[in-house]
Amino acid sequence: MKQHIADLISTALTTLIDEGTLPADTQPKIMVENTRDKSHGDFASNIALTLAKAAKCNPRELSQKICAALPASDNVEKTEIAGPGFINFFVSDASTGNLIKTILQHKSNYGRNNDGAGKKVQIEFVSANPTGPLHIGHGRGAAVGDCLSRLMEATGWDVTREFYYNDAGQQIHNLALSVQARCKGLTPEDPSWPEDGYRGGYITDLAESFMRGDTVTSEDQSFTGTKDADDIEAIRHFAVAYLRHEQDLDLKAFGVDFDVYFLESSLYTEGKVEETVQTLIKNGYTYEEGGALWLRTTDFGDDKDRVMRKTDGGYTYFVPDVAYHMNKWQRGFDTVINEQGADHHSTITRVRAGLQALDAGIPKGWPDYVLHQMATVMRGGEEVKISKRAGSYLTLRDLIDEVGRDATRFFLAARKSDSHLNFDIDLARSESADNPVYYIQYAHARVCSIFRKLEQNNQQWDEATGQAALGRLELESEKRLTIKLGRYPEVVKRAADGREPHLIATYLYELASDFHTYYNSEKTLVEDTDLRNARLTLAVAVRHVLANGLDLLGVNAPDLM
Known about the structure:
Elements: H1 2-19, E1 32-34, E2 43-45, H2 47-55, H3 59-69, E3 76-82, E4 86-91, H4 93-106, E5 120-124, H5 136-154, E6 158-165, H6 169-183, H7 201-212, E7 215-217, E8 222-224, H8 232-253, E9 260-263, H9 264-269, H10 272-282, E10 286-289, E11 292-295, E12 306-309, H11 318-330, E13 335-341, H12 345-357, E14 368-372, E15 375-379, E16 382-383, H13 396-403, H14 405-413, E17 421-424, H15 425-429, H16 436-456, H17 463-468, H18 476-486, H19 488-497, H20 502-521, H21 529-552
Parallel strand pairs: 5-6, 5-13, 6-9, 13-14, 15-17
Antiparallel strand pairs: 1-2, 2-4, 3-4, 7-8, 10-11, 11-12, 15-16
Helix pairs in contact: 1-3, 2-3, 4-18, 4-21, 5-14, 5-19, 6-7, 6-8, 10-11, 11-12, 13-14, 16-20, 16-21, 18-20, 18-21, 19-20, 20-21
């Protein structure tokens, strides 16, 4: 409805431009907002206030001219001018029927758009090094990243989901040493245990699997244990494949899949890191000082220059990141979104600076970043930290086993990603209106229960009769519910444009609340055939929108609870 009203205003402004009331070069930004007080209408626009100066008249006078030029619409009952020049729009009863018909026509496609026009977007998320089970922070990244991928697909983008990880490096070496020590019978309590070794129970499982000669297969690699506790390279390869397999199991349990797995080591073996460094040197953005090679990131807005190559000859961690993102650019992605933990904030400026210094035509501000804060898991009012599986931290699998996939996904995605999240296990397990995912899913199940009861009464829903009788939906609660349904496409667009999946969760809770209120106050299966079919038709529209929104969050829409 907002877009419809904006289109009406746009047509009126074109008329005023043709008449000379507004300058020919007028390019207005039309804003249509929901009103808080329904006595002021359903929607309002401040367009006259923003264009009054250009029209050389006061806002109320311009409001009158805009209203006079508005084309007729079955969806708008009347307009009123308020205050200094706001235009209030009152939607008609016919708009209720038109909207519900649209929802039933489009079903699972209602709310989707083609803003992306098939352009390529790569979304990188999780990207956890295979040194242990996925923790709750990885889970939040998985939830936000996957929901964002679903949103971008729903708005017309060609999405590639990518997982980037390191299979070499110091952390992987420490992992291999830990597994080797366990293969030789040592325990973390032994004085000779590697100083920076990993101590979780999964190290024991991993070592036993290697010594049995098991073959482990992940989405992107496979390796067989050699049973040789002295073969550190075989242990390293096996450990990476084993833990990647474990990560895959966690992610599948979470309903997350990836299209591409990218190894950081490939950037070195294929010479991409060295090629990137040489290009930066050739372009004149580097200098040597104190035995180190520096990049002049201050030329691109950083607060200080950054070391690229250390005095020992090794590269700092942002250098392969620059090479990796150059690879993304070369693969033809119009847009790249990195969903990462907030601890990556410091790398944003230097990665973007490195990309600009490559002089490859990469736009400023590329790539996009969505950073999430960490999550604290609570039970009984106290923080939960320890996992039997990982030892020092709670794993994503622990949480899924405890509260289920749906609640885990919803809770991790339902709060703005840059806000700290308290995950309350007791709340996530509860079957009450206080539990948002239960409350939303129950609204969907309630609609389904209406139709089961309809069948038990030997009655049927006649869609044609229901659509023809939508004018019978005269209650304020029915109008409010319909207006909320009409907001869904706008919320999807805003969530995708702003990279904010939590907006979908907030909307669904509000829709569920409106439906529960309506359900509790009004009987659906009334004796009046036309009214019954009209209310059933409204209920079906609610069911479609709830299911569509839950799908964007990767959460089930159950028929029975």
